[in-house]
Design goal:
CATH class of chain A: Mainly Alpha
Strand content of chain B: under 5%
Chains: A mainly alpha (223), B mainly alpha (225), C alpha+beta (150)
Largest sheet of chain A: none
Radius of gyration of chain B: 18 Å
Order of helices and strands of chain A: HHHHHHH
Number of domains of chain B: 1
Shape of chain B: globular
Number of domains of chain A: 1
Number of helices of chain B: 10
CATH architecture of chain A: Up-down Bundle
CATH topology of chain A: Four Helix Bundle (Hemerythrin (Met), subunit A)
Structural class of chain A: mainly alpha
Number of helices of chain A: 7
Distance between the termini of chain B: 21 Å
Oligomer: heterotrimer
Number of strands of chain B: 0
Distance between the termini of chain A: 22 Å
Helix content of chain A: over 70%
Helix content of chain B: over 70%
Strand content of chain A: under 5%
Shape of chain A: globular
Chain lengths: 223, 225, 150
Amino acid sequence: MGRSSPLVGWLGGAALTLMLIGSAIGLFFVAADAEQGEVQRLMYVHVPAAWTAFVAFFLVFIGSVLYLVQRDPRADRFAAACAEVGVVFIALTLATGMLWGKPTWGVWWTWDPRLTTTALLLAVFVGYLAIRGFSDDPDRRARWSAVVGILGFIQVPIVYLSVVWWRTLHQPPSSPRSVSSEILWTWMLNFLAFLLVFSYLAARRARLARIEAELETRQAYDV
Amino acid sequence: MALGSRVAAIVWKDLLIEVRTKASFHSMLFFAALVLFVFSFAIGPDTPLLKRIAAGLLWVAIIFTGILSLSRTYQAEEAGGGLEGLRMAPGDPRGIYLGKLAGNILLLLAMETILFPASAVLFQLEIARNALPLAGIAILGTIGFSVVGTFYAALTLNLRAREILLPLLLIPALVPPLLGAVNSTQLVLDGNPLGEAAVWVRLMVAYDVTFFVVCTWIFPVAVEE
Amino acid sequence: MANSKLVWGLLGVAAVVASAGMLVVGGLKDNVVYFLTPSELVARGTEAVDQPLRLGGQVKPGSVSWDAEEMDLIFAVRDSVGEIGVRYTGAQPAMFREGIGVVIEGSMQGDGIFEATNLMVKHSNEYKAPHGDSIPETMYESIIRPGTVE
């Protein structure tokens, strides 16, 4: 127990540094898109946040499977930490998407398939967190949330492919061919920064969960 | 006991309790009617608008009512610690799920046989002429709802605040069958018996089969001690 | 161990759900249509009159007329086959211009004009810094993907 490992501290430092550099480049050094103007800079938050959330939910899936195979509480805490931070990132994706939608599309929100499936993805993992929040028995909590985590992950490819399968207002995913190279590099840099921020937050959250678990057992013995 | 007789025993027991007390059925029916009333009042005297959204209102009423009754699914056993008993009984725990599922479907369908004609009166819908396709849609939609609902009801059984948690988990999972049911109901009501509605019916069939298999399969994880 | 059997079962289930989920979603693929293209709406004929729906396509170059006094916007939306006249009252979205993709909510009127209640701009997935005289003209050709228009 005790202090967190120094590695996590370094991770936090690296995340903060890269975040500052990425934001500075995205905000001041790269020219904005010719068509959309300054508002296109939201892309450096919106897209990395979305991808990071996808990564997070994939890790929830992995953690949930691992838990059910090995019944190791560490896998459960790992999945829970990733889910909690993932929910923050998917909420950030929706919020920045709305801010971006109003000036470009003309609306904050529309029920197009991409937006609808993303909102459902948020709802599924809020449900995951709720089922954890409301169950007292650690074993049951881990088992049930693992089931929800595995089933919930199915929503991720659906969200990603929604713009390919259906007609949407949301544009299809950009590719290196549709984005000029300086925008692409800024974008990737910010994605990396987001991944580091995610790893840092998830590591801290997992540590907190470990302390909570210890507290839970101690209280159980005291009673 | 073989799986079949386990299922039959549970269905028989629950239906018997229901028929003797009629506790769930009456309150469900009244609640569903209230939901329809609230919509009618909230939307106002715009009959063409009500007619256009009738299918949506009807299915929202069914889902709200269904969620209320789902949270009571395991109540009869729980009060007397009987679920432990059911689980302890030798044999496949899936029998509990299948029995409860059949009971929920029957109860909801019974309610719908009254709710559909009632809504026809309230919203001036053409129900009698399309009774057969509507019955098929109602059955498919109810199966889809109950398959996932009965599973999640077991999953949330021992949680605090399960009245809130059940809809929170269930409603996102119900989007495909709800889309299918509402759209096909509306198409049939608009006098489009089988043409465009067929794709939506196929969607409901695919959903029902998939989730029936999946929920039956993993049910033991949900109730495992 | 009963445990691991259960887990493999669960993994199998996840696979089944994934593939079957794709099936379900695939079924949705043809049903859930966020917007109709102009040629699809034309094909519906008088059946579509007064039905609230969404129409999507490209603003036909040279078709836009804007009355700033009355806030009246008239333009044509087209796909590779057909086109439909649109009337909209209200402020234009900032990115609205000739040749751009739009999704419009409203309904077809008896006179064959689409009366819009809401006008949304659909931009492409291209992001390029300005180069000299800028604004690539072909940028919005890709908005209506081939295959979505029969």
